[in-house]
Write a structure and sequence with these properties.
This protein has 5 helices and 6 strands. The protein has helices at residues 41-54, 71-80, 91-98, 102-110, 136-148; strands spanning 4-11, 14-21, 24-29, 64-65, 89-90, 123-124. Helix 2 (71-80) crosses helix 3 (91-98) and helix 3 packs across helix 4 (102-110).
Length: 150
């Protein structure tokens, strides 16, 4: 059985904590209080990949996200995974692709707990950038980072 590992680290958009089981990311979001979780090779690899992403040297991750929940949630996250690095689509475009409403898509994206790996920051409002877990400025930072390293 593969152990669950964790690693917390500082990034340009704030402190992140990653939890992995083998090559599967379970969580990549704000820090949690963790007990009984080790820091091992997979968690260290995730930390390195996040560092490479923020330095502009990585455009995709070797980890796959664990996607659970409703059929809509799975469809939304799977579609977001298809958005190329440095590209954006609107909430409306994403909603049309998954057969839902922009509001429902926005709600699903607000529940993303595997930031960057599921690149919900690439989904923007038709006017402006829309919201993001770490705030609008962090979302703008990520979009500029990707645009400058295409």
């Amino acid at each position: 059985m593969v152990n669950i590992e964790a690693s917390c680290f500082s990034t340009p958009i704030g402190e992140l904590c990653g939890i992995v089981r083998g090559n599967v990311v379970l969580y990549l979001h704000r820090p949690l209080l963790l007990s009984g979780v080790t820091r091992g090779e997979f968690a260290e690899r995730l930390r390195r990949e996040i560092e490479e992403y923020f330095s502009g040297r990585r455009k995709s991750f070797s980890f796959r996200p664990l996607i659970r929940g409703s059929a809509l949630r799975k469809k939304v996250f799977e579609e977001v995974l298809r958005i190329p690095y440095g590209s954006t689509i609107t909430y409306g475009e994403l909603a049309a692709r998954v057969g839902s409403s922009p509001r429902a898509v926005g709600r699903v994206l607000s529940e993303n707990r595997i930031l960057l790996v599921i690149p919900c920051h690439r989904v923007v409002a038709s006017k402006g950038v829309g919201g993001y877990a770490f705030g609008v400025e962090a979302k703008k930072y990520l979009l500029r980072l990707e645009a400058s390293n295409r």
